[in-house]
Amino acid sequence: MAGDGVELLFGPMLIGVFLNTTLYGAFVVQTFVYFQTYKRDSRWIRMFVLYLLFCETLNTGFDIGMMYEPLIIRYATPSATIIAPIMLSADPLMTVLISSPVQLFIAWRVRVMSGLTLIPAVICFFAFTAFVGGIATTVSVTIINEYTRFHQFDGAVITWLASSAVADVVITVSLVWSLWRQRTGIAATDDLISRLIRLTVQTGLITAISATADVTLFLAVKGTTLNYIWDFALSKLYSNSLLSTLNARGGWKASGTLQENILFGAPSVGGSTTIASGLYIDPPIQSDTLATIELQTRKPPRLGSLTPESTNQPEYAIAVRRVVEQFEDDPIPKTRGFPAEA
To answer: Which of 48, 57, 112, 302 is the most exposed place for a label (fewest CB within 10 A)?
Structure first.
């Protein structure tokens, strides 16, 4: 049992579990920050975050138990290197129970941001396909539990991970495209948009790269578990990316400066101060409190009532205090805010 065989069998699995538990800690912190900061978000979004926390907790527990079985319970027995741990079969299922809902959530946000239906439909299709592939992989690992026979269900693994990677690429490209359309030629606005594009690419492609590396190593390097380095951490990458996006609406510090976010609004063109996809900016008010984007229903005041005198602000001052979004079935006009001052 000594030598490279064992090292390449349990070594990558152990590293993957280390990454999984480390990212779980980061996810718990982000969850705490979210519930402390966005207490007025829609209830279903808060429940969705709790659902992710529940699933991630189960996933981490399953991964720890998965390593405990061969390294402790079956230590120094031939079956430890032949038969896969029982809890390994739970990994694909728990991953798609997290990744697919996250992708569907982002597909909904892309629909809100762009007003299109085709791109979100494509994202939903690949998210659903990945979900089916993940369930098929779980069933296959349960039935075929010998390491040397894992490649008998390559099709299920390819369906799961390749579909997930394609969905992530479509998400990233669609968000970058939505941002690129808002470029105005104004240096300050274009600089902000460029930074948002870089952030979107960095956070969106990491899951696509991880899923691609997972399936590539699984198919190319047989007889090892090198793909598990990325596989066990995959669900945490999805949940952390989503929570990072939610928390980035107001930043992590009470700096009083609104931090723009691609999924929850971006600066529009022209002289008026608006946020794409129906986000409304409050009238100028000085405030030392944290600026946030609350995802709740709110009716904006009449535009005619917004005057410099009524807000006790200098004539040309514009201060962003809070952005709220209306989640209603009726279409929302995309250009609301106050007109540019003369």
So the answer is: 302
